[in-house]
């Protein structure tokens, strides 16, 4: 028996009903936040209401799709990535070695 089996990757697991449920939760939460002033406020029991009505269902929906980020539209819009330095890594001094004093230019 595989103890590390992830149900989301199991062939019998069907994420479609959960996807539909989260899609509906996001839509209902968005409508509530837009139309009801009380849904934009703070509750002593639940805290900030837009967090629970909109942000948490959106995060769950995003997590269901394995945190895939939106695709870039054009490769030319992407900023160039910084390259790693090719030099050697700095080394630590030995605990007993004396420090070098920097000479001060006059």
What does this structure look like?
The chain has a domain at 12-66. The longest helix is centred in the N-terminal third of the chain and has 20 residues, at 16-35. The chain starts with 15 loop residues before the first helix and ends in a 42-residue tail after the last helix. The chain has helices at residues 16-35, 49-64; strands at residues 42-43, 47-48. α1 (16-35) packs antiparallel against α2. Helices cover 34% and strands 4% of the residues. The protein has a two-stranded antiparallel ribbon. It is built from two helices and two strands, in the order αββα. With 106 residues, it is mainly alpha-helical. A hairpin with a 3-residue loop joins β1 and β2 (47-48). Residues 1-5 have low confidence and may be disordered. The chain is elongated, with a radius of gyration of 26 Å.
How would you sum up this structure in a few lines?
Helices cover 34% and strands 4% of the residues.
What key attributes describe this structure?
single chain; 106 residues; mainly alpha; two-stranded antiparallel sheet; 2 helices; disordered N terminus
């Amino acid at each position: 028996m595989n103890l590390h089996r992830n149900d989301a990757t199991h062939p019998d697991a069907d994420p479609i009903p959960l996807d539909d449920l989260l899609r509906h939760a996001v839509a209902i939460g968005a409508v509530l936040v837009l139309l009801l002033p009380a849904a934009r406020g703070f509750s002593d029991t639940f805290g900030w209401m837009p967090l629970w009505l909109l942000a948490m269902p959106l995060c769950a929906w995003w997590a269901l799709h394995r945190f895939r980020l939106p695709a870039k539209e054009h490769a030319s819009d992407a900023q160039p990535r910084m390259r790693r330095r090719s030099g050697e890594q700095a080394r630590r001094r030995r605990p007993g070695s004396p420090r070098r004093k920097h000479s001060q230019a006059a």
